[in-house]
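Below is one protein, fold included:
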Amino acid sequence: MLNENIKAIRRSKGISQDELAVKLNVVRQTVSKWERGLSVPDSDMLIDISEILEVPVSTLLGETVTEESRPEDIKELSEKLEAVNLQLARQKAARQKRLHRAFIILCAVIVIVFGLLWLEGGSYMDWDYADPEKAVMGTIMHAFVFVFVRLAPFAFIGSIVGAVLTRKRS
């Protein structure tokens, strides 16, 4: 709801994402993330957005609050913003967990393929290459081993670094 409101009000005012970003001292990608619902602005930034777009914060949050707003109404709005922040934090944690698992799986796959290549021991080199089918398959195997052995260490190190950087910190 917040993301849709920011986008609709910004467009209705004829302000581009770049212009809004400059006025808020953020990068355009930040405004884009807000409008796509991937993140939400903090409360101070929300106030700045409302001032630039010349609408009350309650309008951005999708509420209609009258001029005689009660403290309970404001508290309710802040609770809604907190709920949105909590939901986005959970989504971010889930994304981080999936990414961490992907890095670990990539490490495992690289180790398994290296093990299989080691066990295979280059036996394709002894094939009878007079047979066209074996010649093609042997060439493909040789190309795979050639590329894999040269790129896998970099991918392995990168995935270890990725797994370390995305681990859950207690």
Summary: The chain has a mean pLDDT of 85.
